[in-house]
Amino acid sequence: MVQIRKQQERGFIGALLINCIPDVAIAWAASSFFNGDRDVAANAVLIFLALQVVYLAVWLRRIVWGWLLYWVSNRRKMTEHLEDFLHKQRFPCPPEVIGSVDDYLAGVADNSNVSAQVRLKAATELGVLAGIRASGNGLYAMQLAMAYERALQSYERRFAPREPSDEQWLDART
């Protein structure tokens, strides 16, 4: 699909302006309520800016708390759950090098040597990850991708060790 940067920028600016409408209305109403007819516009601007500061503080609290919880307990739980899922569903051993979890899942979904049931589950997982990203929950999408990466690394250890290729032997000697 053709992506036109200017069109995307206009869409972002338009969405930003539309999303400011409720805040402007709240700021104007609050300024009118507290100040009557005096300096409504100036005070509305100050109230609007104060709202943006409050939103930033709430956003920062959510981000910091979300990452803190992830590193303290959720990372281990998510990783164990995902590794157990991969094992129970009999996903194939991940390759030694993959670009991302999406690459692994897409590879499984497209692999005709894998059972149809596992291919369907891989495609479903790929869709779930895409849906989480599309929903705008970037924090959870990043955490889930990181947990999936660790789960794939742990899951790979469940398989028999691979025989090193000739290229790996050459790399090891140099």
CA-based shape = elongated
The succession of helices and strands, N to C, reads HHHHHH
Radius of gyration: 25 Å
The tally of beta strands, per DSSP, is: 0
Q: What is the percent of helical residues?
A: over 70%
Largest sheet: none
Structural class: mainly alpha
- Number of helices, where a helix is a run of at least 4 consecutive DSSP H or I residues: 6
Describe how the helices and strands are arranged:
Elements: H1 5-35, H2 40-88, H3 101-110, H4 116-134, H5 138-156, H6 166-173
Helix pairs in contact: 1-2, 2-5, 3-4
Characteristic key phrases:
78% helix, mainly alpha, disordered C terminus, elongated
Would you mind describing this structure in some detail?
It is built from six helices and no strands. Helix 2 (40-88) runs parallel beside helix 5 and helix 3 runs antiparallel to helix 4 (116-134). The protein is an all-alpha fold.
Summary of the model, kept short:
The protein has 174 residues and is mainly α. It has helices spanning 5-35, 40-88, 101-110, 116-134, 138-156, 166-173. It is elongated and about 80 Å long.
